[in-house]
Amino acid sequence: MRYLPLTADDRRAMLGAIGAKTIDDLFVDVPVSARLTKPLDLPPHAGELEVERELSALAGKNLAAGQAKASFVGAGAYRHHVPAAVDHLIQRGEFLTAYTPYQPEISQGTLQMLFEFQSQVALVTGMEVANASMYDGATSAAEAVLMARRTVKREKVVLSAALHPHYRETIETFARYSDGEIVVNTPDPTKDEDLAALIDDRTACVVVQNPDVFGRIRDLAPLARACQAKGALLIAAVTEVVSLGAITPPGEMGADIVVAEGQSIGNGLNFGGPYVGLFATREKYIRQMPGRLAGQTVDADGKRGFVLTLSTREQHIRREKATSNICTNSGLCALAFTIHMALLGSEGLRQLARLNHAKTVQLADKLAALPSVKVLNDSFFNEFTLRLPKAAAPVVETLAAQGILAGVPLSRLYPGEKNLANDLLIAVTETATDAQMDVLVSGLKGAL
Amino acid sequence: MSETKYTQEHEWIRVEGDVGTVGITDYAQGQLGDVVYVELPAVGKAVKQGGDMAVVESVKAASEVYAPVSGEIVAVNDELTGAPETVNADAAGKGWFVKIKLGDKAQLDKLMDEAAYKTFLAELG
Amino acid sequence: MDARNTHKDSPAVIGAHPGTATGNRALQIEEQLLFEQGEPLRCGVDFPEPPKVTDRLGGLARKSDLGLPGLSEPQVIRHFTRLSQKNYSIDTGLFPLGSCTMKHNPRLNEKLARLPGFGDIHPLQPVSTVQGALELIDKLAHWLKTLTGMPAVAMTPAAGAHGEFCGLLTIRAAHEAKGDARRRVLVPESAHGTNPATAAACGYEVESIPATPRGRVDLAALKAKLGPDVAAIMVTNPNTCGLFEDEVIAIAQAAHDHGAYFYCDGANFNAIVGKVRPADLGIDVMHINLHKTFSTPHGGGGPGAGPVVLTAALAPYAPTPWVVHGPKGFELLESAEGAAKASVGRLKAFHGQMGMFVRALAYMLSHGNDGLKQVAEDAVLNANYLLARLRDVMSPAFGDGPCMHEALFDDKFLDGSGVSTLDFAKALIDEGFHPTTIYFPLVVHGAMLMEPTETESKESLDQFIMALRSLAEKAKAGEAAFFHAAPRLTPRRRLDETAAARKPILRWRPPAPAQAAE
Fold first, then answer.
1. What ipTM does this complex have?
2. Taking 50 as the threshold, does the pLDDT of residue A70 lie above it?
3. Which of A73, A347, A360, C346 could form a disulfide with A428 if both were Cys (CB 3.0 to 4.6 A apart)?
């Protein structure tokens, strides 16, 4: 078996050195009743060719975005072009097969990269400090809520109705067995919420998304002031990190914690995972932050180096008093983010964002020319809500059968909300061509 | 001159009137290694004898500091926030953590005096 | 005086600086931060001119400078290549970290995860367009259920700790559904820190169960602590001392007698995969670390995946979404309604760590039934070989029987040498090995936990043994200063973690402008 180096001779020699007759002598502590005596009902080992054949067949049953006639699917995960250099670099064995950098002397590669990642995240979000990543944007949001409760020692949580439902649901699950109410309105892409009215002196935090799940962009500064006035924290979620290249970041609008999904930079769609959660906040809150942190220091020769720091917040030391139970970060995905962001720089991120927005404006204008549909947004970055004259989900199915991935019907995210049944979320990235936009427009025309 | 009393968890308390100054012993700071952070309670907080009062952190560990007596926190040593190394340098003096207004002075009788604490340490080996 | 610099080989004698003009040491190249190399207008990506439009950004166009450094592609490739060369990895050499299962990461898995049919599909595409993806998840679920003997599995947790959270949520939901809310969870002293952290996150009080002198859970102590208010016990098996809990069936029975659930931490599944089914030991729920037993890459800290196998009693509470068979093929139950109405809810956005699912299934198909059994046998054989060849110069913590896939030593063999477990580990680095896990589990003094895994050859193990024997002799010969100065040959020597914690510097900031001349 190609991954198992021991030969029969090796095994014999090693058993001899141990003083055991058979390998099963080493399993003597396993209760007899639990020892498997027959093989399990699973196939035997297979070579690369056979495994590749089997899994390629499964892959072939999926319509990849790049193979579709056109793809405009967003709602929290976005298809961007990742430069070829990124994937090559993350496959270097010293990155791919390295462990958590607990021995810093032989992990300076990982540690310096994480320090660079933390710096990049702080800059794009407009915040003071960021951690070394979490599982994804939704779990980052949930951890931010728990952190807010710990920090201001209050329980009530206010969630924007325009927060991505997966984020809301994850927060609700994480908070399921802790005290305190979670307040959320009915979602409506045609109206603005009055979240300030829901804040009182029992409120730990308010969670909003910008651009929100419908694609709308808002100034969070008035809400930040309203939170501050009552001693609550403002948590801003960003599901499309490229938007930070075009719009004012939440840090500059007064957010106390910014959480984001970093997938758009460096990481492909991958059917929803693995992704990379970003988490940034103010310096005064660093000891309440969950997740790993890489910090700068010097070594015994006085040279600058990096280490994991403030570890006493974490599970391996505080155990039941830890700020979170989290053990892994999203290391390799954070590396991909760092490399892509390094290739982009300020200039590249700005250009990428401008290109996304410009194409989205073009498509919105083309669609607005269709008589029976309406673009609901007054503002958007690279995603908007289109109101159709009939239910959106069947239209999306019809178009999918033609090889067109038209977007996400809001009924997929809000299955119970009848007033959203005709609404379709359409995302446009730099990967969309004019021809593909025309395919979508004529496809929709035909389906309506 | 007030007497210093000690707990089995290596806290010390020095009482003047009905207010006791509390810290951790030199033995404790030696065991901890470099102190990197001290988490102090809020002024006004009520504490119980033997209950959680503060946390002292080194790089690899976080240790609970327990209240040697019940009472109310009337002062905390803010200087430790910016200079946690003071705990290592002078645990018995400048490295004090809090001042407690005692609820019941009789609780001091349960604690060890200096000689008893020295014996206790010797037995720890 | 700092003892680290007094040995005859210490930098004070050989010179901290290698004596080159650049400060580089041949292939060990000093590399600055991205921020110290960038130019604002440089860019490593080319974009076409965007179409001219009036923006619809609601008046919130970003005015501030992003402050990110600009580099060309050659500079970026060189930067990260140089960084990678400062890392130890499985590809570099034996990585004997106990409890981490640092086995070889097959490259076929990387190739297959990148097939566009897996890598370029969006989670919210119509389900009819991703039937192959759902079938893959279902197939992997089938392998996990068959290997563990359990009837159900929750696929969405993103890591082991996330899986523990998932498992405890289902336990709490199950108790509350019966109107029987309980308060306590029992966790062995030797448990991994995520266990009590997770129990606390679910609102439980955590109580510790001591270990016996043989390193196993003390069954009598456990029984004494069990009661009608105990929701669950959390036990790792094989345990964190590398030993099989030989009384595990009695432990399960005791828990069940009191109506408590048995959560099994599956971190050490590599020792028994294909040889033992955890269901046959009486467990109710177990997370499996795909990045341990099933070879998905550690990536410098993540991403992982932690699917959770469940009994029929706990299955209804599994987090959404569920991949199920429907009349039109595979379906995704994304909300807590219908068949999933008792679900505890969603644990993260979308459907789980698909990229890790592809890799893990490729691993399983490659090994097959017979290969997986061989994995466990070779893993246990390799660890026992280390134990046998080191026990005369190092001190096994529990030496009176075989270990499982990892061998645990304590620091007794270093008594009187002035060398700590940490010092010993740092010296191992200069020999070309990543240290073992140190100071875990907490129940043993100065613990050194070594897990070679089955993908190490006998030659590799013999070299490791030789290095450890040499170091053990050196320590006993009184060469403490040598150990205190270690490592000496690495890109960075021991780093000041105290300063890093006292005055945290967590991001790059541009240096302050120089003082004006007088």
1. 0.97
2. yes
3. A360
Greatest alpha-carbon pair distance for chain B in Å reads 38
Question: Does residue C5 carry a pLDDT above 80?
Answer: no
First to last CA, chain B: 31
Confidence of residue C200 (pLDDT cuts 50, 70, 90): confident
Spell out which residues of chain B touch residue A312, defining contact as CB-CB under 8 Å: 36-37, 57-62
Summarize pLDDT for C454-470 with one digit per residue, the tens: 999 999 999 999 999 99
Cβ-contact A407, A385 below 8 angstroms: no
Residue C476 lies in a domain: yes
State residue C14's pLDDT score.
42
The shortest CB-CB distance from C346 to any of A118, A170, A362 is to: A170
Q: What residues in B contact C502, CB-CB < 8 Å?
A: 34, 36-37, 84-85
Cβ separation B61–A317 shorter than 8 A: yes
**Contact residues on chain C for A91, CB-CB shorter than 8 A:** 110
- CB contacts < 8 A, B to C, total 17
Q: What are phi and psi of A286, to 5 degrees?
A: -60, -30
Please give the helix or strand (H or E) that residue A429 lies within, else none: none
Contacts of B37 in chain A (CB under 8 A): 287, 312
B60 lies within 8 A of chain A by CB: yes
A385 lies within 8 A of chain C by CB: no
Average pLDDT over residues A21-35: 97
Q: Which of C203, C345, C504 lies at the smallest CB-CB distance from A178?
A: C203
The token duo for A219 is 């100034």
What is the C-alpha R_g of chain B? 13
A309, A340, A371 - which closes a domain = A340
Q: What does the DSSP assignment read for A288-355?
A: G--S--EEEEEBTTS-EEEEE--GGGSHHHHGGGSS-------HHHHHHHHHHHHHHHHHHHHHHHHH
Look at residue C2 in the predicted model and tell me its pLDDT.
Answer: 39
pLDDT surpasses 80 at B123 = yes
Chain C residues touching A293 at Cβ < 8 A: 504, 506
CB contact under 8 A, B60 and A317: yes
C354 and C401, same domain (yes or no): no
Treating both helix axes as pointing N-terminal to C-terminal, what angle do A108-125 and A331-368 enclose, rounded to 10 degrees? 30
* Domain assignment of residue A373, given as a range: 70-83+346-447
Where in A115-212 does DSSP place strands (E)? 129-130, 156-159, 182-184, 203-209
Q: What is the mean pLDDT of chain A?
A: 96
Neighbours of B60 (CB within 10 A): 17
CATH number attached to the domain at B4-104+113-118? 2.40.50.100
Distance CA C475, CA C489 (A): 19
Residues 341-380 of A with CB under 8 A from C: 341-352, 354-355, 357-359, 361-362, 364, 377-380
Last residue of a domain, one of A340, A359, A388: A340
3-state secondary structure of C364: helix
Overall number of domains in chain C: 2
Q: How confident is the model at residue C13 (pLDDT cuts 50, 70, 90)?
A: very low
Do residues C294 and C427 share a domain?
Answer: no
Q: What integer pLDDT is reported at residue B94 of this predicted model? A: 96
Contact flag A339-C76 (C-beta cutoff 8 Å): yes
Longest dimension (CA), chain C: 84
Which of C50, C200, C368 has its CB closest to that of A45?
Answer: C368
Q: Please indicate whether, in this complex, the C-beta atoms of A287 and B59 are within 8 angstroms of each other.
A: no
* Any A CB within 8 A of B62 CB: yes
Chains that touch B (3 or more CB pairs under 8 A): A, C
Please give the torsion angle defined by the CA atoms of residues A320, A323, A326 and A330, in that order, rounded to the nearest 10 degrees.
-170
> Nearest residue on chain B to C439, judged by CA atoms?
B60
pTM for the model: 0.95
Report yes or no on C203 lying in a domain.
Answer: yes
